[in-house]
Amino acid sequence: MTRQTLSRRTLIAGFAAAVGAAALPNATRAAIPKRIGLDYAYYNPASLVLKKFGWAEDALRPHGVQIDWLLSLGSNKANGLLAGNAVQFGSTAGSAALLARANGSPIKTVFLYSQPEWTALVVAKNSPLRSVKELRGKRVAATKGTDPWFFLLRSLHQVGLTQQDVEILDLQHGDGRTALERGNVDAWAGLDPYMAATQLDAGSRLLYRNLNFNTYGALNAREDFINANPELTQAVLRAYERARHYAIAYPHETSQILAEASGISLRVADIEIRERTHYPDPVPGAAYRKALEAVIPIIEAEHLAVPGANLRQDLVALIDSAPAHVAVSGG
Hints:
The chain is α/β, with parallel strands linked by helices. Helices cover about 50% and strands about 15% of the residues. It is built from 16 helices and eleven strands. Strand 6, helix 6 (about 145-160) and strand 7 form a beta-alpha-beta unit.
């Protein structure tokens, strides 16, 4: 048995014990909050299912806790909500979570809600561009601090370019789509469902795809909340696991929920849900760690983290598998 396995088992046992202690009436613990914040996002199908059916409310009602739902329009927005303590659970890409942690945000990835192909480089229908190399000197829209932004940087680096070789316009995802369709930019680092929508509605095409450059859908929680409220953390993650199972079992209904929530067509929603969303083991582990290790060289080369950041230590600190492991196993 490896030291890593022993450490993981110790952490899981410790978290399970904390949940048990929190359930005892005489346990000394912080006062249970009356309300907590959860985000929902069009790129996180499980969050939409959870909100639609009220399963998080059902899980927290016995604890006397109510939920404030806030919309995240991108990982950058979710990270901002987490940093400001407006939500205690927020939906980001893994890459965005790592950068936020490196830059001082007190978050941990506690659950993986998807493994999507939610981003690619997109050009207009009649664009003459045929390769990433041809982006040199061009205007590209991307949302800073999100998976599409990292996808753009990694794609550029792969062909010997950097962000200095292009003009990046920091636009929120929906605005990036609009800029592409209006001809204000030459390319856009897209995100579903906006990416699927511009393909169907405007004939935009994907200039470059790479599934391995898409990092996981990460549900992150504030570290102070996890430590103070292990029982509530479990309640939220069990509800999330219920929603994840629903999304897997009922893709058509999940597409309908996405279409209703976001105002997109069912055809667009089907592309995101049926073609581009996969559901991995929700416990963040070795595969998630490996995906984020591949992002570290880009963060270092482009000087994206604060001076002195130790990204490998930050990666270790980011991942907390114990809460999901306990929730999924029914512990």
